[in-house]
């Protein structure tokens, strides 16, 4: 399976970390599948400071928001691309592609800066429009996700 080039980051002049360039960071076949159904894969990516790139950490299949929250680290940030089967009030069904930034309270400030400084570029590159942030993994529930998605109708 071919992967697209990984995003590289470098220290910026003000000392924070940001992405120098950013190409899609998950296997293209995974992204195609995620956009077509809610069963997955749901990629979880992290910043690998030593290798200076964003890497695919894990892909989850057929996982609910409640199950996903148990897989996320409680004290380290992560980015997750999650497709969810959303049933609208009028009965229509859609599969929105959500970018979830898990930035737990209590993680190292350096990590928070690396992830927060990289989030917008990753979202733009992946062309995602449903962008959410959680500060504790307990926030990630089906009710929370439905509430967030109801804004987009």
Protein described:
It is a single chain. With 153 residues, this protein is of the alpha+beta class. It has a single domain, classed as 3-Layer(aba) Sandwich (Severin), CATH 3.40.20.10. The protein is 28% helix and 29% strand. It is built from four helices and nine strands. The chain is globular and about 50 Å long. The N and C termini lie far apart (36 Å).
Write the layout of secondary structure elements.
Blueprint (H helix, E strand, L loop, with lengths): L7 E4 L5 E5 L6 H9 L5 E7 L4 E8 L4 H7 L6 E6 L2 E2 L5 E2 L2 E6 L6 H18 L3 E5 L7 H9 L3
Parallel strand pairs: 8-9
Antiparallel strand pairs: 1-2, 3-4, 3-5, 5-8, 6-7
CATH class category: Alpha Beta
Tally of separate helices: 4
- Compute the average pLDDT: 76
Q: Number of DSSP strands?
A: 9
**Shape category:** globular
Biggest sheet strand order reads 4-3-5-8-9
CATH superfamily: Severin
For the biggest sheet, the summary is: 5 strands, mixed
- What is the SS-derived class? alpha+beta
The CATH topology annotation reads as Severin
Strand content: 25-35%
Give the termini distance in whole angstroms.
Answer: 36 Å
Strand and helix order: EEHEEHEEEEHEH
How many domains?
1
**Portion of residues in helices?**
25-40%
CA radius of gyration: 15 Å
Low-confidence stretches: 1-35
| Corresponding CATH architecture | 3-Layer(aba) Sandwich
Keywords: Cytoplasm, Nucleus
Protein name: Glia maturation factor gamma isoform X1
Pfam family, one: Cofilin_ADF
GO molecular function, one term: actin binding
């Amino acid at each position: 399976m071919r992967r697209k080039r990984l995003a590289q980051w470098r220290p910026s002049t003000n000392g924070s970390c940001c992405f120098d360039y950013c190409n899609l960071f998950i296997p293209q076949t995974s992204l195609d599948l995620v956009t077509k159904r809610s069963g997955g894969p749901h990629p979880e990516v992290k910043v690998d400071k030593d290798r200076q790139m964003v890497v695919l950490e894990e892909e989850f299949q057929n996982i609910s928001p409640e199950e996903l929250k148990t897989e996320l680290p409680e004290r380290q940030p992560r980015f997750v691309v999650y497709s969810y089967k959303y049933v609208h009030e009028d009965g229509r069904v859609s599969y929105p592609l959500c970018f979830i930034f898990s930035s737990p309270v209590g993680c190292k400030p350096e990590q928070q800066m690396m992830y927060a400084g990289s989030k917008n570029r990753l979202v733009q590159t992946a062309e995602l429009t449903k962008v959410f942030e959680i500060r504790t993994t307990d926030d990630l529930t089906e009710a929370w996700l439905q509430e967030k998605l109801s804004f987009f109708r």
